């Protein structure tokens, strides 16, 4: 689980993207084979000790045809709004510049935890030069070299120390969900339609993230909470139209949700940008429901639903576990299917399978279809066990973890799904060497 968000700010060429890549480096290859959102990344994840943080390189968020000063201004605003800890990067090579001073001024006013990180301190001589940055009035400074990988660990230690605790325990026992999708797919209409039908709204909870308003309510004895991606219910945020920024917003909401509703605009059909959104939903390891909205605008006969289902499956192969519902937020058609679907998917996300029952299924699967030998060596699964939920995570104890190939993992996953369902939730399968 993501424990908080770190934003990197600083003027161009101080080394933000080099530093960013250094931070997310070791995870990159894992993340990169998931579709959609990986190119041109401005956000990633960094593991430090037992924690995982999201990292944003604000330098990658740009507004077209705006003067440079505007752009930095926006980047700092976004960092202040979205991050729990801000890393302000400056460069020892160039020294204190006027843009550094402008950024420092904004950060001081923000009351956010800020660490001043002096980059390009490649050697000891440059360390002396770094001291002039004390003049920015941000207190202690950390000297690093992103290129050489020096000092990074100290920065992350400090981040861990000052990261404010996330207060999401108040959502225990509730099912939290968020609605994501391209602009105009009907996110706010859907939220309103769900809330309209006599739901008892408990009260608005001031979210952990700045001005996000999460709405808890009761329905048929169950408690739910809609995690707002800010822009959804309060329109007119200044930077909302910048796609990369709306992605960050969505990521924040996804982090805090049990189940994600991924909306498609039925009046337009599937668009390229939907793939980015779907990728976000899948990568997070949360429950996912695909909601085909604006069903009222679709000309249908008795085959339409089947045809569209096929199309959705073909476009979002990796979301094959997600149920699809067809609704109209405008007319209210089939809106009553949504909460039961959310409840069911959340139940599946938290399902635990008894070890002996699981082993029967997996060992049977192996017997029916043993893994193909690889360089003369054959994978042997001895036993398995479910080690986690949300998402359900299974460990296979094997002779050699290297021998578990993607296709065989897929086969095992399918067998688990055939036996136990798990509709709506991704499944993780890991291999460990049997000791
Ligand atoms: P950004 O514009 O802030 O994202 O900066 P970049 O990451 O693109 O880096 C700008 C330039 O600084 C590139 O040529 C980098 O190779 C260089 N650079 C980044 N970090 C270091 C460092 O630690 N030492 C040195 N000497 N150069 C660095
Ligand atoms: P958001 O940007 O994703 O929050 O989308 P909105 O909820 O603001 O909706 C965008 C537009 O689509 C508005 O004009 C809505 O009235 C319209 N809309 C939303 N849901 C439906 C629907 O189910 N059917 C039809 N016909 N229009 C819809």
UniProtKB/TrEMBL annotation:
Keyword presence, Nucleotide-binding: yes
Gene3D superfamilies from the UniProt entry: 3.30.300.20, P-loop containing nucleotide triphosphate hydrolases
Signal peptide: none
Keywords carried by this UniProt record: GTP-binding, Nucleotide-binding, Repeat, Ribosome biogenesis
Positions with a binding annotation for GTP 1: 10-17, 57-61, 119-122
Parts forming coiled coils: none
InterPro entries noted in UniProt: G_ENGA, GTP-bd, GTPase_Der, KH_dom-like, KH_dom-like_a/b, P-loop_NTPase, Small_GTP-bd
Residue span(s) of domain EngA-type G: 4-167, 175-350
Sites where the protein binds GTP 2: 181-188, 228-232, 293-296
Family: Belongs to the TRAFAC class TrmE-Era-EngA-EngB-Septin-like GTPase superfamily. EngA (Der) GTPase family.
Quaternary structure and partners: Associates with the 50S ribosomal subunit.
Record function comment: GTPase that plays an essential role in the late steps of ribosome biogenesis.
Protein name per its UniProtKB record: GTPase Der
Annotated source species: Faecalicoccus acidiformans
């Amino acid at each position: 689980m993501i424990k908080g968000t770190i934003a990197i700010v600083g003027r161009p060429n101080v080394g933000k993207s080099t530093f960013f890549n250094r931070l997310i480096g070791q995870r990159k290859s894992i993340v990169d084979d998931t579709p959609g959102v990986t190119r041109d990344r401005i956000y990633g994840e960094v593991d430090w000790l037992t924690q995982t943080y999201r990292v944003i390189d604000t330098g990658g968020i740009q507004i077209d045809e705006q003067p440079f000063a505007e752009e930095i201004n926006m980047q700092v605003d976004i960092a202040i709004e979205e991050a729990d800890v801000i890393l302000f990067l400056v460069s020892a090579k160039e020294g204190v510049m006027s843009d550094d001073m402008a950024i420092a001024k904004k950060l001081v006013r923000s009351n956010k935890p800020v660490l001043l990180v002096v980059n390009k301190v490649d050697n000891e001589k440059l360390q002396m030069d770094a001291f002039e940055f004390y003049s920015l009035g941000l207190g202690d400074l950390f000297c690093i070299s992103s290129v050489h990988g020096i000092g990074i660990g100290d920065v992350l230690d400090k981040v861990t120390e000052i990261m404010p605790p996330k207060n999401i325990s108040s959502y225990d026992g509730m099912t939290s969900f968020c609605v994501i999708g391209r602009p105009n797919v009907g996110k706010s209409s859907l939220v309103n339609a769900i809330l309209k039908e006599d739901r008892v709204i408990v009260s608005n909870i001031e979210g952990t993230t700045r001005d996000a308003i999460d709405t808890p309510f009761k329905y048929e004895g169950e408690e739910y909470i809609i995690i707002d991606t800010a822009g959804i219910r309060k329109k007119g945020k200044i930077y909302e139209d910048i796609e990369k920024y709306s992605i960050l917003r969505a990521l924040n909401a996804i982090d805090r949700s049990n189940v994600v509703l991924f909306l498609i605009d039925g009046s337009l059909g599937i668009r390229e940008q939907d793939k980015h959104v779907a990728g976000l939903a899948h990568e997070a390891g949360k429950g996912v429901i695909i909601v085909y909205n604006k069903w009222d605008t679709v000309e249908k006969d008795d085959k339409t639903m089947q045809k569209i289902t096929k199309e959705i499956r073909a476009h979002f192969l990796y979301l094959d576990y997600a149920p699809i519902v067809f609704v109209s937020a405008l007319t209210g058609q089939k809106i009553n299917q949504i909460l039961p679907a959310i409840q069911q998917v959340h139940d599946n996300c938290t399902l635990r399978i008894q070890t002996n029952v699981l082993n029967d299924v997996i060992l049977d699967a192996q017997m029916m279809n043993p893994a193909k030998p690889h360089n003369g060596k054959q994978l042997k699964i001895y036993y398995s066990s479910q080690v986690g939920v949300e998402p359900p995570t299974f460990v296979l104890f094997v002779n050699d973890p290297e021998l578990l190939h993607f296709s065989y993992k897929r086969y095992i996953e399918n067998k688990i799904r055939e036996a136990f369902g798990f509709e709506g939730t991704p499944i993780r399968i890991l291999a460990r060497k049997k000791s």
